[in-house]
Amino acid sequence: MTELMSFMPPLPVLAGQLLIGLINGSFYALLSLGLAIIFGLLQIVNFAHGAQYMMGALCSYVLLTWLGVGYWPALILAPLIVGSFGVVLERVFIRHLYHLHHMYGMLLTFGFALVIEGCVRQRMGSSGNTYPVPSALAGGWKLAFTYLPAYRLWVIGISLTVCLATWYLIEKTRLGSVLRAATERPDLTRSFGINVPKLVMLTYGFGVALAALAGTMAAPIYSINAQMGSEIIIVVFAVVVIGGMGSIKGAIISGFGLGIAEGLTKTFYPQASTTIVFVIMVLVLLLRPAGLFGTSEQQAPNSSLSGDVSLDFMNVAVRRTLVAVSIAAGLAAPFVVYPVFGMKVLCFALFASAFNLLLGFGGLMSFGHAAFYGTASYVAAYTVKTMGFDPMFGILAAMTVVGMMGLAFGYLAIRRHGIYFAMVTLALAQMVYFFAVQAPFTHNDEGIQGVPRGHLFGLINLENQLTMYYFVFAIVLLGLITIWRIVNSPFGYVLKSVRENEARAISLGYDTDRCKLLAFVLSAVLAAVAGALDALVFQLASLTNVHWSMSGHALLMSILGGVGTLSGPILGAIIVAGMENYLASLGSWVNIVHGMIFIGCVMVFRRGIVGEIAFRLGARRSVSRSRREPAAASGAIAASLSSQP
Amino acid sequence: MNANILETRGLSKSFGGFYAVRGVNLRVRSGTIHALIGPNGAGKTTVFNLLTKFLQPTQGEIRYDGYDITLRKPSHVARMGMVRSFQISAIFPHLTVRDNLRVALQRRLGTTFHFWRSGRMLDQLDDRADELLSSVGLSDVSNEVAMNLPYGRRRALEIATTLSLDPKLLLLDEPMSGLGREDIGVVSNLIRQVNQTHTVLMVEHNLSVVAELSDAITVMARGRVLAEGSYADISKNPEVRTAYIGSAHA
Ligand SMILES: Nc1ncnc2c1ncn2[C@@H]1O[C@H](COP(=O)(O)OP(=O)(O)OP(=O)(O)O)[C@@H](O)[C@H]1O
Ligand SMILES: [Mg+2]
Asked: In terms of residue numbers, what domain contains B14?
């Protein structure tokens, strides 16, 4: 096909790419519309949207090829089935989160996405399937300059119709005004006798059904596979950041517009076609941070994801002993476990702790730390292998490059708050991923192999497994001490206050944007140390380290261990690395387990392991203390006001 | 000293075509307690957001302490000594009561970005923090995590934090909301005490508090200034009466 095209004049190429652009745009529009509707009413970013799109495709495939249902019924049935599945998710899980920070919804649905994708991969493998275009829509028209397949026109037509109908429903009808009222004042709307929970449930179902519809229509064009959802959802997040989530119209226009922009790029500069949407996102963030259709800038959210978990209930001696025991265990580890495994745990521990510096102490949830970890791996591998750097200088080079990258990414990302921050970082990291896929020096799927560990400062031979272990151990320990110091520094206190209440910190005179930027850069540089060590340990820098699932790992380790604690991410790293090691033979089960951990942590276990232990012990302590000093307050304001709102 | 510490001209803010604040000329004299009142949705909080630069005005200009601050950053305005409180009490919930104050006091040290130094250096602020805490009666809970305080004491903590910056002008958004009668007395006294050395601009729905405390009052309704003057002038004004009767607050 492409060889054929290159012989033709450019007009057909252009027309063909425009058509593909419009098709992609249709899917972007349907998906971002669904996200916008769900976000509008539930205040939740539905991370499972991509997985639900994939389910739509899969569901219609099953209906068509296994059950022999025709295309037309399937077009209705698949969205209905997947939409009902969405309703179940909302009833069983999501509705318990409405009173919590937005981030929890995003994490929960991220867990759904992992589980769904893992299950599908487990069942079908990652190779693709497809089903034929229905006979009524086969064929097409030959125009003077291009060929117009009927099915593609149909897809564009249906998407446009559905989008416009939805827009009309929400902006112009009574149902729409009820929806909007429920978004703004759920309490008032309820008092008018409207069943808000039911409305919320159906809205989620509808948004999910839109995703499934897109999937159903995409199936004959693209191949159906487990990862089709996660690939598209990241682009859709960028679309949403560009368009502004607040606006239905914005979602539709930017969806189609960016599809076309992608098509045009494919014609004129194909290398950039995968990244153009992200580049546009960067430009929009620079010029119009609220998004093209975003109205008023949202105020910074006030509630934080997790509080500082205080471990003061342990006296200093106990804490010192625990730290000493951990260090001793770390020193003894290579005699008990396989040293490479130990080193992996160490790399992960530093990575998760660096990530947690930002999330737990700065309140900033980055979904893009894979970019820092992976880039550092590449830089270290390249400088050490190709340029013959000393391993230590390889690490320093990685820190420098990633530090600058962190500065640039941070500068862009802190222009948005909360969930948008997460989406921006995810999109920026995906840009880095695509760069890594295309750049020659990364060697694509093979990665940079055979990275020599070399001699530290030309003296100490790191090819020796034990020596290498202690080298990694020393660097990681230094990194962790640095994090501990940052958290307890004057800057650390300011950072915590920004996390707790950004508006208040501003009104105290702090330039909170600069604080967040510094935290972001510090976190990136520390993650870079971990990534560079990873490359030296495994003597390999590959796409795995820069893939979004690595960002998911950082999140998983922190949340599982305990966000906002210093020891939590380390514990999380031991568990996650252990699982990866021992469950490796189980294939996609690892993903499913990860997803379930996310779901479990969000639903019942929000403090993480260390946080939960600290809370239990701390609660017992404060109960016993208040028994000793009953209602301490005397003679001051409102000793009488004991109830909290 | 009777100069105006704060003056706005034609201050307006529109949210997508809807004017929440329109053509407000406000003058706050140095050393006074100035009250900004009006029914719900009148635009009072929006005026506060504009003055402290949390929102950028659509039109108009703001002069504070002799400078045009219309284009300044919010943190800069705060450093110039105009410090606000929030309608919903604004504290750092997971920090201890003393740390809430230390964070506020810390800014003057110029160590905001010192991430390599030990937090011990902040111990030098403890004396001042404890002094402020005792002035609002919170000494006994200085090591308590702030979110465990009852509502009234959180308000007191917020005021102490604001005072710790030694501001020239305090903006208080409904300092009495959610307080019981005793606490209203305590906070009233606190405001009066603060006023000996600071200028206060406050939004307040409790009219008896306004009557008792304020030297001057500005009444807003639907984004505009309806009337200005002393409490006696205002309460006679027929327009003000209709505006209030038309709303939930009588
Ligand atoms: N960010 C915003 N976007 C859109 N409209 C807003 C925004 N902030 C305030 N408004 C609107 O501006 C009007 C004035 O609101 P404001 O909060 O200033 O009132 P207020 O006088 O403080 O009321 P209250 O006494 O209830 O606190 C209201 O109608 C409100 O809905
Ligand atoms: Mg208000």
From this structure: 1-81+170-250
